[in-house]
Each structure stands twice: as C-alpha cells, then as structure tokens.
C-alpha cells in the first residue's frame, strides 16, 4: 500500500520583486534533495503541475499523526499583482497556509499590505519570510534582521497573525544573475518552520464538485487535460463534469495526482483530469463542476465588511472591480442596512431575509463615515450607532459564473499601482444571485429597501378649531392628491391628516382630528394678525419678518418611507 501523502496548499504572496518565485524555486529544490537525497524528479509525461505550482515533499511531522507518510506542500506562487488578487481570491478556499515574502531591505510595501489583507480574509495561518538578507552588509546583518523582525511584529500586532513565525532567508544570493552554485541561506530553517505550522486542513468530500482549473493542454490520442485544485466536493473516474464557460459536459477518462493515477479526488487535492477531447485554447483558466451546479448571475446581494486599510468612503452608485468566484468584473454597488431600530439585532449568518425592511444608505456606515447628520449628532454625544451587519446590491457589467456563498472582494484596481494606498475596499459573502437578465423587473421589487423621507412646511393660518392651512411643504406643480390621507405632526404637538389642496399655489388643508390646543390657536391667530397688518402696509417688510420670527411659525412635519424598487412609488407611513 502506498504511503499516505498529506497535501497542504501554501500561498506565496508578496510585493512585486520581493523574490517570491526564487523562494518557491529554492524551496522545491531544497525540499526534494533534502528530503529524498536526489535531484527533483523529472516531469513525467502526461499530467504535470502547472508552472505556477511547485511542490516540496518532506517526512510527515509527528503532530500530523503516527505511521509512515509524506507531507507535501503545494506552493502556489502568485505571479503578477493584478492576477494575484484574482488567483488568490479564487483559490482562497483551499489555501491552508500563507507565506508573506518581504524584501528585508524595504520592509512592508503597498502590495505586501494588500497581500496581508487577502490573507486575513482567506487564510488561517501565516509565516513571514524576510528575503534577500544577502544584500545586508555582513557586520550589520543580524541587527538589521532583528530590527525588521520587530517592525513586522508591530505591524501584525492587531491582525489575526499576531505572533506568527518570522524567518530570514536569501532564496537566491547574489540575485537572478548569480550562478546556480550559490546556496540559498535559511531555507532549511524555513522548511522546519513550515512543517511546524502544518495542520490537518478540514476537507469535505460532500456537496457539488467544483474545481479551479489553472492549466489546460491536450494529449494526442488521450483527450484534454485540465489541472487544478478541487475547491469543493469530489470527483471519480467516469463522472460527467460541466465546463460552464464552454457550455459543454465531458466525461472523466483518467486522473492523476502527483504523477500517480487515481480513481478519486476530493476538496483540497491538486489533480489533473483528462476528459474527451476539446480545444484547450478555449479554457486557459476557469471552473469545472458537477453539471448544472453553478449559476450565471447578473446581480447579487452580499453581506459585507469594509477593509480597514481602504482610504475613503464606500459610496452607493460607485463602481468597483468585483472579484467573485474566479472572475473579476466591473460592478455598481448600493449599500443598505437594517432599519435603525434593528441595528443591534443578531443576524443569521449566510442567509438573507426578504421579509424584512432595510434602510437605503448613501454610503457604507463606518466610524469614519459622516454622511448622515444623525451620525454627526451622535458622534458629538460620543456614541455612533453602527449596525452589526450591512449588505450591498451588486449589479455586474457582464454576467459572472460562481458558486453560492462564495467569497466576494471589491477593489479599485485602476488606482495607480505605485500609489501608497490599499486598493481592496470590501469583502463579503454572496448570499443571493439573480440569474434572470430582467432581474430589475422580476427580482428587485421583492427587495424591501426603503428611503426615509422627511418634508417640512409651515402653518399659514387657522380655518377653524379642527383645520389649518399649510404652505411650503410642496412645490406649486406637485399633485397634492397623492399625499391626501398622510399623517403630519405640528411642532406644537398636534397630529394632523392632509385633507387636500387649497388654491393653486401648493397650499393645502390639514384636518386636526383632536382639535387645536388653545395655546396653538392663540399663537397662530397672533401670527396671522401681524401678517394681515403687514399686508395693510402698517409695517415695513424688515419689521414684519423680524416680528414673524419672534412669533415662531408653527412647522408641519411629514415623514414617510418609499421603497427604492417599488414601481408605483407608494408612500408608506408606519
């Protein structure tokens, strides 16, 4: 029986030119020769690992169980930076351990910070690698390494990686041009640290099969091979798999893992799947899955959190690069929250309740968002009320294919790559996708997001004990008829109901069911007397306005809500 091989996927991340590829190369070579005392196996014909993936095999450490076996680290070297975001987010479900590579002469750089953010969202464990120590003068090398180690510990203090191992190496002493005979420094120590950090990842073979393909090629007489990592579920010989991008279903003819033929593979495994022939150029990267298990969506509802390092507000109607599944597309956002009374309510995770009412927000609410006046006032009192959960409606510029409950990241990838700023804005979980192209008519009306409206006017005069005339609440051209029956409140405390228009200038009549209070009546009668005196020309305009101010007009408040996606634009009062 073959010794068991435990596969742990390690993401190699870092700022451009920090030496990620050299490190992956040094690790896989050192690993193979150190562990097996022989040169790395030449690539066998047939299914090989993709170039972005190399592997390092070593004996199984004691914490991973008794018995013989091998620990295999699959190193996922993330190449260019734009693709880094897409690759890592796509493979986030299967990266078990992350190596953050830092150029020891430069420290944290913009992209290192972004990699740290992605790690916090997608990863459980991290090792920091301070690379290029050969560039430090030998006499000062140790003190420089200690200084940078302290700096990194401080940076990581408030992250989930606080206290993680920090290892100093020179993956390629002398740089890319140096002869191959130069031995790497510190790599054996790094391998020991990686072994100590390895754990049994939780893998679940149930559910739909979904695999991220990162390489595709054909073998004459056998078929087309897709290599990649299984994100969920499992696959067996003879299964049918769908390639959603090509809208075709193919039969699995053979499979290999690490050059060994297998009949079964599950979540977390790197595998090559050979299916009946198709043109490999049509699918360089993408997803394959159980037939009909992925959906193609035009819009989605997500729960989300703002990324703390992103500067600036997240505005409704703004456009972001949305990475969802294995695709990145442009999308427009609309933020919303629970109704203010429910800000502290516990929200069920990964479920969206269409029965509830939600409050439209001009921007994502956070401590630094000052858009709402309410927040400004509360802030002065030292208590900003923030909801426990917020959501967004994402509308994509082109449809995306993805699994349910997948990770979503919103970023501003068009920001200058050299600007010292984090381009990742928010992350969340896709709760509900909209597959219908006409979702604005068929789906959005079910989404009960409302805007709170507040209009103010003034009482112009009293008609009798139970009715007054109001003004300045509506424009002259407003159809007052649609407001008839809505409740209003006077600043003196009385409740009223809009009864209809009065004349042609936007004035209206209010019925006061419980009658006006004597004080209110006196106040209004005094105000209208002064006004009528003014009309007779007894006082100048300036005097009239100052007297009116001292008489303090009685204001009328009309508060109602309107659902954003209600085609009839009905006004609702609780």
From TrEMBL:
GO MF annotation, one: GTPase activity
Name listed for the protein in its UniProt record: Selenocysteine-specific elongation factor
Database matches in SUPFAM superfamilies: P-loop containing nucleoside triphosphate hydrolases (SSF52540), Translation proteins (SSF50447)
InterPro entries given in the database record: eEFSec_C, eEFSec_III, EF-Tu_GTPase, EFTu-like_2, P-loop_NTPase, T_Tr_GTP-bd_dom, Transl_B-barrel_sf
Needed cofactors: Mg(2+); Mn(2+)
Reactions performed catalytically: GTP + H2O = GDP + phosphate + H(+)
Gene Ontology biological process terms in this record: selenocysteine incorporation
Keyword GTP-binding: yes
Domain Tr-type G per the UniProt entry, residue ranges: 5-202
């Amino acid at each position: 029986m073959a010794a068991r091989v435990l596969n742990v996927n390690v993401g190699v991340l870092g700022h451009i030119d920090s030496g990620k590829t050299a490190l992956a190369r040094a690790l896989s070579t050192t690993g193979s020769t150190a562990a097996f005392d022989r040169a790395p196996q030449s690539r066998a014909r047939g299914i090989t690992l993709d170039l972005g993936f190399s592997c390092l095999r070593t004996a199984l450490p004691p914490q991973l169980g008794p018995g013989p076996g091998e620990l295999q680290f699959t190193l996922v070297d993330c190449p260019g930076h734009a693709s880094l975001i897409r690759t890592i987010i796509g493979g986030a479900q299967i990266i078990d351990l992350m190596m953050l590579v830092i150029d020891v002469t430069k420290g944290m750089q913009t992209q290192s910070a972004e990699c740290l953010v992605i790690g916090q969202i997608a990863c459980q464990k991290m090792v920091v690698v301070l690379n290029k120590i050969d560039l430090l003068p030998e006499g000062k090398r140790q003190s420089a390494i200690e200084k940078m180690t302290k700096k990194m510990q401080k940076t990581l203090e408030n992250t989930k990686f606080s206290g993680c191992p920090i290892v100093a190496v020179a993956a390629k002493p002398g740089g890319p041009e140096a002869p191959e005979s130069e031995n790497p420094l510190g790599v054996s120590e790094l391998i020991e640290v990686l072994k100590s950090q390895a754990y049994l990842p939780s893998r679940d073979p149930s559910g739909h099969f979904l695999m991220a393909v990162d390489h595709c090629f054909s073998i004459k007489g056998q078929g087309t091979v897709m290599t990649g990592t299984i994100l969920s579920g499992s696959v067996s010989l003879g299964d049918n798999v769908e390639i959603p991008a090509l809208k075709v279903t193919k039969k699995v003819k053979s499979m290999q893992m690490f050059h060994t033929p297998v009949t079964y593979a599950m979540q977390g495994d790197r595998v090559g799947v050979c299916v009946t022939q198709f043109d490999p150029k049509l699918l360089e990267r993408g997803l394959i899955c159980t037939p009909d298990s992925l959906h193609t969506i035009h819009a989605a509802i997500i729960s989300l959190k703002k990324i703390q390092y992103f500067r600036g507000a997240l505005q409704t109607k703004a456009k972001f690069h949305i990475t969802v599944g294995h695709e990145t597309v442009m999308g427009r956002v609309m933020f919303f929250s629970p109704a203010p009374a429910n800000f502290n309510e516990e929200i069920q995770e990964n479920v969206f309740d269409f029965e509830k009412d939600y409050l439209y927000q001009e921007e994502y609410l956070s401590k630094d968002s000052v858009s709402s006046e309410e927040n400004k006032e509360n802030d002065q009192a030292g208590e900003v009320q923030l909801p426990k959960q917020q959501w967004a409606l994402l509308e994509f510029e082109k449809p995306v294919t993805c699994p349910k409950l997948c990770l979503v990241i919103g970023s501003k990838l068009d920001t200058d790559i050299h600007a010292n700023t984090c381009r990742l804005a928010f992350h969340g979980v896709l709760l509900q996708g909209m597959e219908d192209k006409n979702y604005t008519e068929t789906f959005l009306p079910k989404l009960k997001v409302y805007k709170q409206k507040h209009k103010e006017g003034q009482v112009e005069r009293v008609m009798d004990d139970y009715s007054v005339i109001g003004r300045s609440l509506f424009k002259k051209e407003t159809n007052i008829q649609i407001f008839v029956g809505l409740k209003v409140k006077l600043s003196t405390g009385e409740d009223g109901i809009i009864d209809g228009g009065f004349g042609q200038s936007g004035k209206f009549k209010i019925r006061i069911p419980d009658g006006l209070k004597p004080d209110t009546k006196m106040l209004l009668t005094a105000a209208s007397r002064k006004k009528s005196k003014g009309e007779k020309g007894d006082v100048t305009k300036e005097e009239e306005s100052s007297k009116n101010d001292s008489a303090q007009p009685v204001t009328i408040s009309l508060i109602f809500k309107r659902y954003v996606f209600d085609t009839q634009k009905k006004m609702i009062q609780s």
